[in-house]
Design a protein that fits this description.
Low-confidence stretches: 1-24
Enzyme class: lyase
Strand order of the largest sheet: 9-6-5-4-3-2-1-10
Cofactor: Mg(2+)
Keywords: Lyase, Magnesium, Metal-binding
Pfam families: HpcH_HpaI
Bound molecules: Citramalyl-CoA, magnesium ion
Strand content: 5-15%
Mean pLDDT: 93
Largest sheet: 8 strands, parallel
EC number: 4.1.3.24, 4.1.3.25
Structural class: alpha/beta
Number of strands: 12
Amino acid sequence: MSRTRAALLGCGRYPYAVSREDSSHHMRSAKDFFAPLAVGAPTPVTEVPARPSRMIHFFDPSNPKMAAKVPDMVGVSDVLLGNLEDAVVADKKEAAREGLVTIAKETDFGEHTQLWTRINSLDSPWVLDDLTRLVTEVGDTLDVIMVPKVQGPEDIHYIDRILAQLEAKGGVQRPILVHAILETARGMANVEEIAGASPRMQGISLGPADLAADRRMKTTRVGGGHPGYLVRQDPAKGADGAPDYQGERPVFQQDLWHYTIARMVDACAMHGIFPFYGPFGDIKDTVACEDQFRNAFLLGCVGAWSLHPVQIEIAKKVFSPSAEDVAHARRVKEAMPDGRGAVMIDGKMEDDASWKQCMVVLELAERLSANDPELAKMYEEA
Ligand SMILES: CC(C)(COP(=O)(O)OP(=O)(O)OC[C@H]1O[C@@H](n2cnc3c(N)ncnc32)[C@H](O)[C@@H]1OP(=O)(O)O)[C@@H](O)C(=O)NCCC(=O)NCCSC(=O)C[C@](C)(O)C(=O)O
Ligand SMILES: [Mg+2]
């Protein structure tokens, strides 16, 4: 804002009045950013650990059948998430919270499976007890807390501080990380600031159902495409040379979530955190689920949610690079060991930039196969 304009608006006392574009008023100083927010809280991480998180498998800790399956899913799912929010009815909220405390205490999650939770929304009557109970009782077992319906960086700042206070109170040894769900138009408009709001930020997921409702999109599906969202080929010319509007014309269904996912991926990449596609509600349509997951994988997401055991395998398949891509990446690395110059491989140009693309694939393949002998074997034979 210019000084004249600031004066005209009656804020002439502040010659450098903070404009809306200047977000620094939301931020702590760079030097304080990695200091604990409470005396006795663990020191924040400077880098988000890149642990395999191809699927975040949701279970309802108040559902005895689902809860009983958790120990068998250790080592099968990269992430197990005890859900306390939507899909858990109001009179089961406490049972879900207590169920999760018990599961966290009694289950050995091993080295490769993380335990996450999704807490109730910040305006709900349950969230304060969710945080207090979980962090002080099982804070050292919980890797990530997923926060629903995040509207802006102020929501993350609130969580950041209260987590530090509770970690200090519970003697938690390492900081619990935070994952935001993008499910409101305001959250979407603030996604870059949300991604950078705290060193605890681990990642962001798309929440397609709440987001669709909040935006007044007209799909009633939980994620996935829509046959009405399409482009149609031009009409062919009729016998008289005029367009034949009545003739058959192929249509191409488009991805309803393309803009949202792409923007979320950029926000996450710019802040060194991880983007995830969210849920795919049509459990029986495993084919379309795989397609949606793959679109997200290709655009940069590292994983998706699994709502039903059948979706774990889909995510594992999609979010692990294919043997073919790994083999190609290796060939490029062999042809250009230091990643410089330009060469031809199978009639295609490879250079410094495509070498980097190959490194993304190889690094992911290495990280995943370190935990998964089957995958390691597949890549070895590729
Ligand atoms: C879809 C439902 C109702 C079908 O449940 P079902 O019982 O009808 O399915 P089934 O095929 O008959 O189940 C077979 C067996 O698998 C078990 N089972 C089934 N699911 C699971 C599971 N997740 N984890 C572990 N076990 C599971 C189930 O208990 C059963 O066990 P049994 O053989 O012993 O009888 C059920 O799978 C379910 O409740 N899934 C989780 C739903 C959920 O968490 N929703 C919230 C996330 S999506 C969301 O919130 C939106 C978002 C982001 O916020 C936004 O876009 O805005
Ligand atoms: Mg939701």
